[in-house]
Specification:
Residues 141-203 form the WYL domain. There is one protein chain. It is built from eight helices and seven strands. It is an alpha+beta fold and 231 residues long. A five-stranded antiparallel beta sheet has the order 6-5-4-3-7, with helices on one face. A two-stranded antiparallel sheet has the order 1-2. A hairpin with a 4-residue loop joins strand 5 and strand 6. Helix 2 crosses helix 3 (35-47), helix 4 (77-88) packs antiparallel against helix 5 and helix 4 (77-88) crosses helix 6 (112-122). The longest helix has 15 residues, at 3-17. The chain is globular, with a radius of gyration of 23 Å. 16% of the residues are buried.
Amino acid sequence: MNRTDRLYGLVEELRAVSPRPRSARRLAERFEVSVRTIERDLVALQQSGLPIWAEPGRTGGYVIDASATLGPAGFTLDEALAVLIGLGTLGRGPFRHSARTAARKMLAVLPDGEAARASALASRVHFLEGEDDVAAPPEFAAALRADRVVRLRYQDAGGTESVREVEPLGSIGKEGQWYLIAWCRLRDGVRAFRGDRMLTIEVTEERPPQRALRATDLAIPYGRLRSAIED
């Protein structure tokens, strides 16, 4: 469990037993981390403005106001709408399942009125997609994050199938298509593999060597490459 999920989990755990306290030790056991980590997390939640306080004594612990929720970083309505629209663009991408659950989580922690407003506004935004568009396989995401050699059964533009062992380096999204950028052992070079042409994806146990991806390796003839996270 990453820290963000753990913070949300801590809030819900304390709300579930409120007004009874929950000790840091029990919380540490519940989330399988150290007591010190839990105490740091609770301080962070208190600093964010959540009404959490400590009750001293042998049966004491931490208590939260049962009506409290951990909002998504104090988003404004426009920010919440932007997040929902951004997640909606992933409807046919390899991260579509995670995008749907992320959208539900964000709406769940917004105040009811703001959640309803953001949802209503987002429902007015539509994406025009081709009827024959094929979604990238969800295993694409696993291939990207695994830091392992991946075995692909791949079909090229001409319909020829091949099996490739590749070392994932990143991905590119363009006009609804997703490409896995990887070092191809068969071609001994960087190649782009289109998600909808991946017939099977197998993540092996082999760790690939460290490779640096240079812009020149991609040989993009047009357009500007932009990272998903910009300063």
